[in-house]
Amino acid sequence: MSTFFSASFFVQHLTALLGTLGFAVLFKVRARHLPLAGACGLFTWLVYYTVTFFGGTLFLAAFLASAVATVFAECCARVRLAPAPVFLVPGTIPIVPGSDLYYTMRYLLFGDFDVFANYLMRALLVGIGIGGGIVAVSVAVSLLPKRKNKLK
Amino acid sequence: MEAIKIDVDKESLAETVLRLALDVGEGMLKNGGEVSRVENTIERICRAWGAEHVEVFSIVSMINATVHMPDGTRSSQMRRIRATGTDMYKLELLNELSREICQNHLRTDEVDARVKAIKRSAAYPRWAAVPASAVAASAFAVFFGGGWVEAVVALFIGALLGAIELFAAGHVNELAKTVLSAFVAGILSFAAALIVSGTGSGIIMIGTIMLLVPGVAFGTALRDLLCGDLIAGGLKTLQSILTALMIAFGYLLSMAVMGGAL
Question: How many CB atoms lie within 10 A of CB B96?
């Protein structure tokens, strides 16, 4: 079994951080939130990496990673009094199934439909995992008692 | 009701309140706010100004709302939303504004001015999109297993896609822009693989594709669906499927042009 802290561990986390920050600027996240948005991307990838490293399925990895990202983003939102998507939208970027989608297209073109279907399912599973993770936490958060800043 | 200044000849109380609430909601929706946040915000703002009854319905491309005020005036207005993007800076400012309205009952003319100021504001200069997408594409090329060559090529293609985004923003059909971007990225990745042998055109393409993939949109679409906003979620799902198909189309087109160069 390869080691957990391999060279690719560091390369992947560094590039996940850089990629998240790039996207955060594209999404116009203001400069003072950039460190937290970057941290959100880093945590998301750390969870995903850990789960897949220990043999978890893609769906489980995506689900847990996006759930952790949502918890982190909701905490940041309360500390910084900013909407949660400011942290969550860039933060989930590293687990977006870009490579699976690429291979889906590639094998569609090559007419290799078995491999095509395989990659399409992978992309869909990860997508559903991301959505499910966000929903599970959002529902839990909406059940929490609200602060009394509503009127009357 | 001294918070609300109205010109009775022009607008009734209900019309003023709803117009301003919709201005805030429309801004949120245009800049990437969730449908549930938009509906909540409009309702809260109307109630903060004393509305007796508020109904809001929003999807990605439209907001429809009705308000009843205690003085007996009523208003129904709708907004058609065309271009939407992701601008977390404006979303945050609008969120702040809505919180202030609910807590401090800002005057209506103040709100008007604030909304206009937020519309003009920007967290970064427009050209920042170019280096940002360059860094993102390059980082993801390495993330998905690329080396130095792939990183450098993806850096350039990413910058180019950022520039396309910059010049096409607002006046080119979103899907057409996606096809063009995927096509350009495909051509250039193949070209790079031809010039420097051993370059993985696939890796470069994956890095640059991350800029186009509707991953986040698909995630939020599912969230909307599962939270019960079926129409908004369904439309977003359709949108992200279409975007993915357009990426595939642009990329396949570039493969066809480059012919057997694989």
Answer: 15
Q: Measuring CA to CA, which residue among B226, B199, B7, B35 is closest to residue B112?
A: B7
Structural domain tally of chain A? 1
Range of the domain at A19: 8-143
Q: Tell me the two tokens of residue A33.
A: 């939130």
List of chain A residues whose C-beta atoms are within 8 Å of the C-beta of residue B34? 85
Q: Write out residues 190-249 of B within 8 Å (CB-CB) of A.
A: 202, 205-207, 209-211, 213, 215-216, 218-223, 225-227, 244, 247-248
pLDDT digits (tens, 9 = 90+) for B66-121: 999 998 899 999 999 987 788 999 999 999 999 999 988 788 888 989 999 999 99
Residues from chain A that touch B248, judged by Cβ atoms under 8 A, are 104-105, 108
Q: Out of B216, B218, B244, name the one closest to residue A89 (CB).
A: B216
Quick check: is A124 in a domain?
yes
**pLDDT tens per residue, range B218-232:** 777 887 887 778 888
- Give chain A positions within 8 Å (CB) of B91: 83, 85-86
Mean pLDDT of chain A: 87
Distance CA B179, CA B243 (A): 9
In a domain, A149, yes or no: no
Q: Is residue A128 part of a domain?
A: yes
